[in-house]
Design brief:
By secondary structure, the protein is mostly helical. It has helices at 2-10, 29-40, 43-56, 61-84, 109-114, 120-125, 153-166, 180-183, 191-198, and strands at residues 90-93, 129-137, 140-147. Strands 1-3-2 form a three-stranded antiparallel beta sheet. It starts with a helix and ends with a helix.
Amino acid sequence: MAPAEASANLARYDGVRYGQSVRLPGGDFIADYLATRGAGFGAEVKRRIMLGTYALSAGYYDAFYLKAQKVRTLIKRDFDLIFESGFDALVAPTSPSVAFPFGARLADPVAMYLSDACTLPVNIAGLPGVSVPCGLSEGLPVGLQLIGPAWSEAPLLRLARAYEAITADAEWRRQEPAELAAASDPRAPTPSERAALSH
């Protein structure tokens, strides 16, 4: 459902009305359009748009998108029941795994999509959520997701701020990320350049 909606929403960014526009020498509208669509999005965004376009195509709309809409209703109802029972917020992991090195999952799109598994139900239900750092595992950062009922952004942000205040003196907060100095050095390779060199 998320890729389908991304595909539909991003279709307007074609350089004609919205988004950047690439103009090639010669003034060929179709060539400009294709160049604009090709330059406007990165590989992962393009992959998700293609998946969404596929799910919305005539032969698969009922099989994929309509079924997913029905599941969305059930997910939303489950969240509504929890918040109606008196809970102010839910606490969950942001991701099913710790952070991974830059570019590590580019070759495996399924692993990349699974990284979103903990935030997708919240997004599908249309609820606010915020992720805050909550420590380290195996030396890598871990995210804590706070989820609130509809229209509870302000209380949710206060809760996130309170959590950060409570953990302000934690040892893991004093650890500086590796290679942080390289990020401010204009001569240092970018993360994508470092990832390319490591392959």
